[in-house]
Each structure stands twice: as C-alpha cells, then as structure tokens.
Design a protein that fits this description.
Radius of gyration: 20 Å
Largest sheet: 2 strands, antiparallel
Order of helices and strands: EHHHHEHHH
Strand order of the largest sheet: 1-2
Distance between the termini: 52 Å
Shape: flat
Number of helices: 7
Helix content: over 70%
Number of strands: 2
Structural class: mainly alpha
Length: 162
Amino acid sequence: MAQFKRTTLKRTRNSKKLTTRKLGNLVGVSGVTITRYETGERIPDLGMIEKLAEALDLVSYTELIKEDKPMTMSENYHFTLKQEVLKEWAAGILGQVRRYNRSQDISDESHPLTILRQQIARIQNKEIFQAKSMEQLNAIEGELEGLKKYFEAIVATMVEVA
C-alpha cells in the first residue's frame, strides 16, 4: 500500500515559491485543500497526486508517494494491541455517553450528546478497524481523547445549568 508524502509536497511547493492558493488554482482545488494535504487532514486520490506532480514539474507522481514496508512481527503485535486497547477505550466512553443520555432522557438526534455518541460509535466500529498504520491509530487516540474531554465538558455544563 502506498502513502502520500505530504512533506515532499510542502517542501517542493515552497522551493517553487508557490502559495497553497496558487498551487490549488493550478490543480483545480482551493488553497485550503492543499494545506489539508500538507498537514495530513486529507489524502489526495491518485488523479490529484498526478496533477500535483505535473503542476510541481516533478518527473513522476511516484515522487509524491512511498510504498509501505511490511510490519515486523513485533510492530504487528504492537499495532494489533493498540487497536484492541482503542476499541475497548472507545467502548468505555461510548458506554458512559449512553448511560448519561439514558439518565437524562436524551433522545433528540440533533442533541450534541447524541451526535457525540454516533461519532464515537463510528470510530469504534469503523475507523479503528480501517487503520493501516500506527500513525493513524495515534490520530484516532487523539480524537477519542478530545471527544472524551468534550463529553466531560458538556456534562459539567449541564450540571451547572441544572
């Protein structure tokens, strides 16, 4: 599986003295999208990688991708272990949110805690399973930490209001 080399994109764009907006105009996307490619918030598809390579005068689009090396047994063990730990942690947070929602009789689909529950369930049931690298799992861990803090802040605010 190939990975997009976001740092190469940024370094090459800077060396060509192109702003994100200018590069975006050359390939048909916004400057914000280019920034998201460079920060890893978004990953361009192969067609876009080819456009970026052409706009940056690279020899080939392959300069913007790298092949993953297979994980060693130890790396695979740690990856699988982290997946399992994150699934359990997500389940624990999800349980807390569900219990609180039930105790407060929250069922409105547009309520922030209902939306939070759906986000955590998506992470638990989809994103953790689809992760292909430790970097992705670390990002998911950060997202779960943020969602947990968000839940705690909402509960604290609701208690203060009551």
